[in-house]
Every structure is written in C-alpha cells, then in structure tokens.
Write a structure and sequence with these properties.
The structure is a homotetramer of 215-residue chains.
Chain A lengths: L8 H25 L7 E6 L6 H4 L7 E6 L15 H12 L4 E7 L3 H10 L4 H4 L4 H6 L3 H7 L5 H20 L3 H8 L4 E8 L4 E6 L4 E4 L1
Parallel strand pairs in A: 1-2, 1-3, 3-4
Antiparallel strand pairs in A: 4-5, 5-6
C-alpha cells in the first residue's frame, strides 16, 4: 500500500509521552484488559471532534464500547446481506459482549443534522444525489424531519432535529430482534441524551414526558 | 419512544463531576468550539472499549474527527444509493472538513478480526449467514484473509490479519475518488498504525518495506 | 539594506532537512494552515533560549499563538498612541483570534528578573538610566519587587520575583478592558505557570491559596 | 490574583509526558543549561501560531534567543524612557548575551501585515485610532507601505509588504548604536528571511540584489 506516510512527529512524541506516563502507571490494568473486554455499556455518538464521551463520563479504558458515526444514527433493522457497519457494532455489543446499556448521544451544532435539514427543506440538492454518502446516510433521519418541519424558525427545527436523531435511533434500535428481546428480558436498557457543546450541558430523553430534560 | 430509561446514576454523577471540573476549567474553549470544528485529522479506529486514541495521542477536544466501527474497516467505494456510514464519515471529513490526515488504527485482541478469521477458515458458519451483520461487515476483510491464510498457526494468522485490517482499509480509502484526488494533490496523507493494548506499543505501517515497525 | 548577510550554512542545511522530512510529512496540514490560524491559546513566555513551550506542551503548528519578550511581562493598559508590542499581541489574540486561554509562563534563572532585582536593590545603576531599554522594560516588575524585598536572601528574592513576573503580568492583563470583558463573559481564562529549567518542573499559580504548586 | 485558573487537563497530561520522555532523556543537558544560556543567535519572528522557528531550524534548547511579536517588527531606536519590549530584547541579546546573529523572519498570510495594508489604504479606520494597539504597532511598517503602494493588485502589495516587514526591521536594527557597532566590528551579522507556510519555502534577503531569493 504505497500511499501510507509516517505519522506526524507531534503524534509520535505525544504517544511516547503517553507510554511513559499513563500507560506505565496502568500497565497492570492494560495487560489484564488484553485478555478480553467486558464493557458495561455501548455508546453511539457522533464523529464530531468536539464530542468526547470518555471525558464527559470519566471513562477508564475498558468501560465503554463506542461506535461513532455521522450524527449518531442507527438505521432500521435490514438483514439484506449488505454491509451495515452500525448494525454490526450493535449486534456485536448486544449479542457477543452483552452490554447492559446502549446510550445514544446527540449534540449541539451537529453538521450532519444541519445537512439533513438543508436537504429535506430543498436547500441542498447535492445531498439528494445517489452518489452522496452523507445524503444517503442522513436519509435515516427523514422521519425525524417530518416531525419538526412544522416549527417556524430554522433554528428551532435544527435543535429539534438534533434530538430527533436520538429518538429515531432509539426507535430503530427496537426494530432489531436481538435488541428488543434483550430489552424485554430486562438484560438491556436504552438511553438517549443530547449534549450542549458550548454550555457543557446534558439533557436526557424521558419516555413519560416524551421530552429532553436537563440532568 | 417508550423504552428509554434514565441514565445510570454513576454516569449522572460523573457528568456532574466533569461539568464542575473539566468543563468549568475549559468553558471558554468549549464555547469557542461551539462555533465550529477545525480538526486536523480523521481517525478510524475500532469500537473496542480498550482503544482510546484521544488518550494515546494526548488530544484535546476539537483535534480529531473520530469514526469508530468494528475492526476499524473502510469498505470499498460503492456509490449505490444505500446507507454507508463509514463512507459518509470519510466523505464529510475529506470534502467538508478538509482534514489533512486520515489515520487508520488497528489493535491487538480484536474480536472482529478473530470473527473474520473463524468465518474464513470455516469455523463459524453462523457468521456466514446473510442475517449476520458482523459477518457481512467482516466480508470487507476477506481480501486480507487471502494474504494471511498461508501462515501456519492461528495466532500468526490473527496477528497478521489485524494488520491487514489496516492495510485493506488504506487500500479501500484510495478507491474513493475524493480521497485519491486529495492525496494526489498533496492535501491529504494516509497513515496506518496498530496498537498493542497489553504492551502499550504502537507500530506504524511503512510503505517502502510493506511492514509495520515499532515507533 | 546593505548589511544583510547570507544565513549561516548550518541553518540552511537544517532548513533543507526540515523541508525533506517534517514539512514533507505534514505538507497537507501546513497547506490547510496557510488558509488561516485557529489557535486555542496565547502563550506569553520569555525570549530565553532555554524555554520551549511547544516542546513542553507537545504542540503542533497552529496550536499556540506565542508572544515572547524579556521576562514574560505584560505592561499595564496604556492606550497612549505609543508603540506597545506586547499589548498589540494581546489585543490581536483576544479580539481578533478570540483565543480561549492566555498562559503566562515564567521560568528559573531568568536574566531579566535578575536584572530587575539588581536594579531595584541599587546594585545596577546602569539599568536605572533612561536609555536602558532593559531597565525601562523591567520597570513593569517594580510592583513585584515591593512584595519580595522583605525576603532575606537574594536567592529567595529572585525565586519569588520570577513568580511575581507571572502574577504582575496576570494582574496587568486584567487592566485591559477587552481582556477583563472576555474573562467576565467566560470566553477567556487566564493561567500562570513557572518552569524549572534544570529540574524540568512546572508549577501552577493557584488563586485560592495565592501560591504556586507543582503539577 | 483571583482570576487565574488551573491549566487545561490536556496540557497537564502532555507536560507529564514531556517530563517522562524528552526531559528525562536530556536531563543532563537541561541541568547544565540551568547554569546559564549561551545562544548563538537571536531570532525575531511573528507570534503567529503557524511559525515555529525551532522546528524549521532543528533547534535544541539553548540555541536561539527568540523574540516573537506581531509581524516580526523592530521599531527604530528611541531611548525616550518609555517601555520598548522589542528594543529591550535586542539590547539584552546583543549587549549581554552577545549573540553572533540576529535573524528577522517574516512569513506568508501574516494577519498583522494584512492589517497594516488595510489601514494604510484607508480600509480599516478602526486601526487608525489612538487606542488601537495593533494599529499603532503596525505604524512601524508605514515606511514599507510607501514602497509597495505602487503595485497594482492587493495581493502583490501584501506579498511585498510581508517582505518589507523584514527589510524595515533590518534597517531599524541598524539605528541602534550597539547593533551598528557590533556589526561594524564584525561581532554580529544580520539576516532577513521570509517563510512560506503552505509551501514550506524559505527565502533569504540578499543585500546585493535587494531581493529575496529561495534557499
């Protein structure tokens, strides 16, 4: 593979720094972890560089099995033999690792959600094209757009759509037979949260009120 | 969405701890980040709970756009109008965010790679089924298996296949026209690394020697 | 300008070495940076050849906006129409770049601080002269000398005065209306540290205790 | 000083990494350096986060006495008893440290130079105000603007003005009696270079041709 290049020097230096401190201080734990992982929860969050669930939830290595994709979306169950990276991650977490929780975390200023809004409101024809991976991926959120398009300002729509990205994903999670079964047998609980990057806030979806409330 | 449950108390407590400390100390930076992200690099790593690239590379919020999937795989370019979460993340990072680097990070004891090995060597018929999301996802790595099946022990094969997960992904990255174009124009460089969880090591793929060398 | 001379050969050679290695490996990132800088922090440190904040903090190009002057001093706000290089750097960082942090870094064996001590204790009359640029610059630190002159040994006084160079600068920073406003609105935080060159240590000023503590 | 806050955690971690690696491996040299600095050269460069002279010139700790200000400017000699941070740094480097070289390094995409251009061409009245530190600082470069204003496009003017920032500074350096004396006695040489951030280039001012040539 002739196109690979050496890592930037600052990353090499930082790695050596990590090795000599964090790794060195925790080597016993890392060696034990090498035998196998036993995460408590799966987290589905956005690729966005500003969202660090390990920091927000004070996680140690080995605690969370983390899948990150554009706009923290879960597609509906579709066992058609095609490649579904998100569904594979969920299947592995729930059936092989048997995690106790799946947390879907949305966030403010989400570029993917903004793209979906532009596309659904006819302002981004390039995202409608068959060849747009981002557009086709954001199709998952179209049912969410249906529920927020009545809102007056674009800002209100975007905020609501960021939260729909969490709700639609939770709904789609329940279409996976192995997820529904684990939930019904009490072996798995689902959680939805939305993170405000600038304000450092966290809101939690509450089933009874069908609302997000600050925690 | 009636199945959502409140977050476990320990996560709520840790969030409040983060809010009172890390967030509070960095609020100015997080507010600035809320205006937009300018990550330098995209990292593609595994969902595995033991792999923390932000820790290994001493990253601050805002530095890396991170996609995590099973076995850090990139599928080949396939603009068929279906949902491709990994391809969407790559498209967004390279064409919208214009990151300067894409780093694919593999790791030791990878459950996904082990599954691929079992499947390809006929020991896991359940992964061959159309309905297996993990199996179909690991199909991406079959070309890598072809290259390692001559090795004698299963251990050697697994180690080599973990590195093939990096190489095959780098090869597939170059099948995306916008990736190849950015690489050829000098606006993007690709990097492949493999992380030894227990030993805290990092090896880098070197194009000239077609080998991974310790850094 | 007839007095300019060619660069020493060893610098030319090192530049070519950098171009062929570090630049070559990071060209994509440097090209992106050429479009604009988005530094997170401003660092104010000494010109001293022994103080390298980019090394100490594992910084990549583009991370820190760095002003270096004798003894890392910030003068008080004085909008008198004269030339104030340090004030201009602070104004640009805070109002144009909108950095989230300003870090003032003092250090051990600081020649500027030693000069201030000699001058204030009457041992360096040449620094008292109107024509002494170093003397007039170190006048900024006279309020710091007032606070340490009660200490018995010259060594204690010098150590304390090096830390006063940090504290007085932080105090002066708050006299700039745009700094005070950004701090009060939570868009900027100020930090003071002192670096021990020989021992490789770092101490941080803590507001509650009014002391420097090792980190 | 009640406004100081703790350092961001990622900087603390990186410092500990540096301490355990770079410092640890060079402790003997750093301890020796603690006894005194003997830099070969003074470098005057911009605060811009994209300009790292230590990287470009492969510098070790202790090699360069570095002053960084907006647009790498040197004001004319003006011993009026006011505070002149740049003049103090030059005085200390030349008369106390007796450096053998002073290198003024300009660079591409310089925000300060762009501001000067806007101000001098009447497009930035806010920079004309007495209270603008950046404006008053950039007054130093007005003689350079006189020489480039005949150029037709703004782009040509900006490029030429970035180089004038080097030439004017070299000229002003020679107005300092102690600089002129050291130059005339052969104890100091002056050098002017301009760095192209995106392309990684370096051009050197040549006195004979009055031009910058690539090195």
């Amino acid at each position: 593979m002739k196109h690979a290049r050496p890592l930037p020097g600052y990353l090499v230096k930082r790695f050596h720094g990590w090795k000599a401190t964090t790794y060195s201080e925790n080597a016993a734990w890392y060696r034990k972890l090498a035998e196998g992982q036993h995460p408590r929860a799966m987290i589905i969050s956005c690729c966005d560089s500003r969202v660090h669930v390990t920091s927000i939830f004070g996680a140690d290595q080995g605690e969370f099995f983390i899948h990150r994709n554009i706009a923290n979306l879960v597609p509906p169950y579709q066992p058609d033999g095609h490649q579904h990276g998100t569904s594979a991650a969920i299947e592995y977490a729930v059936t092989a690792l048997k995690v106790a929780h799946v947390v879907v975390m949305g966030h403010s200023s989400c570029g993917g959600v903004q793209g979906c809004l532009s596309m659904c409101s006819g302002q981004a024809p390039e995202l409608e094209e068959k060849s747009s991976f981002v557009g086709r991926w954001m199709d998952i959120l179209r049912p969410g757009y249906e529920r927020v398009q009545h809102l007056k300002s674009e800002e209100e729509q975007r905020d609501a759509l960021e939260k729909q990205a969490v709700i639609v994903s939770l709904e789609n999670l329940m279409t996976f037979p192995f997820v529904a079964e684990a939930v019904e047998q009490g072996n798995l609980t689902l959680h939805g949260v939305w993170h405000d990057i600038g304000g450092g806030g966290l809101e939690e979806y509450q089933a009874e009120s069908d609302r997000f409330n600050k925690i």
